[in-house]
Every structure is written in structure tokens, then in C-alpha cells.
């Protein structure tokens, strides 16, 4: 084999091995429940940012609603049969694990189904028995919802037609600091104890 071909082949092998190593680090970090923030070249978090939405009381809100509180932001929809209700329940259990620190934490549920999730629909859903109290539900026009989801790098897609359609969506819970900036991401199935530990570690760093 020509020397140039050997060098190219060796370079490709090294690049492949490096990619595998990086992937392994990412997977392990996510399993630990405290993945690092996704950052851009400026060092600023690329998750989160300005949004214009409406809460379940019909009041217009923007990103300043995150100021002064640690916020657990989750994207879903009220017709979600499993992941959304179980995630909301897990987040409430996480707050109980936090004890006194829970008073500084708010849960924010952003609908990716503005066609059905009116403010009243969100209010009825979040006030149902068995759901955590005090969750802030947000919705808006399709354009407003898309802008908010894009800011958080949250994926969603309508599946099917007619009244029986559903929504595919990402399951990440975003922990935002009292300054409204992204701190870390929590897996929806992390469990209350590990999620609380991850939040406490993040709070300690500020």
C-alpha cells in the first residue's frame, strides 16, 4: 500500500476512535444525570432565550418569568398519554426530595400542541387530581410555540390527522438558573432522588 494511503487510513482510524470516545463520554455523562450545558463558541449557553407565550390564566408572559427562581422547563402536551404526566409527577417528587430548597424551584410546562392546548385546556389539565400543584402551563400561537421550542432546541412534530392526531416531542427537562439562563439538562426518567441531587449540585455552583 502506498505510504500516502497508509497515512490517510491511519488518520481515518484515529478520527473514528476519537468520535467513539467522545460519544461514550456524552452517554456516560447523561446517565449520571448531570450533562454539561451545550455551549457555543462564545462560551454562552445556546439553550433558552426570549419567548412570548400565554399562561393558563390567559396572561401574556415572556422569559422574565424565569427570573429569581430555579426553573424546570419541560415541553409536552395535555393529550400525551404517558411521558408528560409521569414526568410532571416525577418533577413534583423531585421537589419533595429538595425539602426547603423546593420553594426556590418552579415547574414550567410548555405545550407543543397549541391547536388543542388553549389556556383553559392547560388550566383544566394541570388542576386535575394527582397532578402537582403550582405548575405553570404555557401555550401560544403556533408561531410563538415554535419560537420557544427553537430557543430550547426542543423537538416536536404532529403525527396523524383529524381529532386523533398526536405529537412526538423531546423529553428533556431543562434546569434554568435564577438569571433565566440554562444550567443543565435532566433526563425525564432520571428519578426523583437523582434529579434532586443533580439540582442541588447545580444550585451549589450557582
Description:
The protein is of the alpha+beta class. Helix content is 37%, strand content 20%. Strands 2-1-5-4-3-8-9 form a 7-stranded mixed beta sheet. A two-stranded antiparallel ribbon has the order 6-7. Strand 6 (156-159) and strand 7 (166-169) form a beta hairpin. The protein starts with a helix and ends with a helix. The model is unreliable at 1-45 (pLDDT under 50).
Task: Outline the secondary-structure elements.
Blueprint: H1 3-31, E1 52-55, E2 60-62, E3 70-76, H2 83-98, E4 105-111, H3 119-126, E5 136-139, H4 142-151, E6 156-159, E7 166-169, E8 173-176, E9 182-186, H5 192-205
Parallel strand pairs: 3-4, 4-5
Antiparallel strand pairs: 1-2, 1-5, 3-8, 6-7, 8-9
Helix pairs in contact: 2-5
**Largest β-sheet summary:** 7 strands, mixed
Overall radius of gyration: 20 Å
User: Counting H and I runs of at least 4 residues, what is the number of helices?
Assistant: 5
Low-pLDDT parts are 1-45
Question: What structural class should be given to the helix and strand makeup?
Answer: alpha+beta
User: Which descriptor suits the 3D outline?
Assistant: globular
Distance between the termini: 56 Å
**Biggest sheet strand line-up:** 2-1-5-4-3-8-9
Number of strands: 9
Summed over residues and divided by their number, the pLDDT gives a mean of 81
* Range of helix content: 25-40%
Strand content: 15-25%
Helix and strand pattern: HEEEHEHEHEEEEH
Amino acid at each position: 500500500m502506498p505510504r500516502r494511503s497508509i497515512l490517510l487510513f491511519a488518520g481515518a482510524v484515529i478520527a473514528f476512535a476519537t468520535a467513539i470516545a467522545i460519544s461514550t463520554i456524552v452517554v456516560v455523562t447523561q446517565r449520571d444525570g448531570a450533562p454539561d450545558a451545550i455551549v457555543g463558541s462564545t462560551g454562552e449557553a445556546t439553550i433558552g432565550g426570549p419567548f412570548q407565550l400565554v399562561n393558563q390564566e390567559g396572561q401574556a408572559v415572556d422569559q422574565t418569568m424565569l427570573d429569581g427562581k430555579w426553573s424546570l422547563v419541560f415541553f409536552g402536551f395535555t393529550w400525551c398519554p404517558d411521558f408528560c404526566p409521569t414526568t410532571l409527577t416525577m418533577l413534583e417528587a423531585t421537589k419533595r426530595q429538595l425539602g426547603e430548597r423546593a420553594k426556590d424551584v418552579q415547574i414550567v410546562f410548555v405545550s407543543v400542541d397549541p391547536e388543542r392546548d388553549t389556556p383553559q385546556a392547560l388550566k383544566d389539565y394541570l388542576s386535575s387530581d394527582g397532578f402537582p400543584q403550582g405548575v405553570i402551563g404555557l401555550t401560544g400561537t403556533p408561531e410563538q410555540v415554535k419560537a420557544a421550542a427553537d430557543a430550547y432546541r426542543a423537538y416536536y412534530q404532529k403525527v396523524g390527522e383529524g381529532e386523533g392526531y398526536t405529537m412526538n416531542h423531546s423529553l428533556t427537562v431543562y434546569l434554568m438558573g435564577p438569571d433565566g439562563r440554562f444550567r443543565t439538562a435532566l433526563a425525564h426518567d432520571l428519578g426523583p432522588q437523582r434529579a434532586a441531587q443533580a439540582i442541588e449540585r447545580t444550585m451549589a455552583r450557582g
